[in-house]
Design a protein that fits this description.
The chain is α+β, with helices and mostly antiparallel strands and 140 residues long. It has 5 helices and 5 strands; from the N terminus they run ααββαββααβ. The protein is 29% helix and 31% strand.
């Protein structure tokens, strides 16, 4: 879930009405992120749902150096500019380094497209693609 909150305390307050969080069945595990291109917030058709894909890039080794990170981000920016992905977040820490959204339902094409991702080729990242259903227009 993507939530914009100015502080972790305010973020925690947002989830207190949820009985699963409040009663301890679920815990809040928040990670700061940078929104390179967030999902749309306008022009959404809430009356319909469409299937797309979420791509997670998982860290499998230590955090990359600045130059390696620049190559990874240049690759992702190319995919964003090309329209392969429609939203992109970089996670500050934790096991997930990037979260990307795509309107396509072609999982094989996405896996093939991400195969040359520099960190994956170097063995420092793993690409995971999974189904996601969002309101129409959330991912452009």
């Amino acid at each position: 879930m993507i939530v914009k909150a100015p502080t972790k305390e305010e973020l925690t307050t947002l989830f207190q009405p949820d009985e699963y969080v409040r009663d301890g069945y679920m815990t809040l595990n928040a990670t700061l992120s940078v929104a390179h291109k967030p999902p749309a917030t306008e022009g959404i058709d809430a009356s319909g749902v469409e299937e797309g894909r979420i791509i997670q890039i998982l860290r499998t080794s230590t955090i990359a150096t600045g130059g390696e990170r620049q190559a990874d981000h240049a690759f992702l920016q190319f995919l964003l500019d090309k329209g392969t992905i429609g939203a992109w977040y970089s996670m500050e820490n934790g096991p997930v380094s990037e979260v990307l959204f795509s309107r396509t339902t072609d999982t094989k094409m996405l896996k093939d497209t991400f195969a040359p991702y520099p960190a994956a080729k170097a063995g420092a990242a793993k690409i995971v693609v999974w189904r996601q259903w969002l309101s129409k227009g959330v991912v452009k």
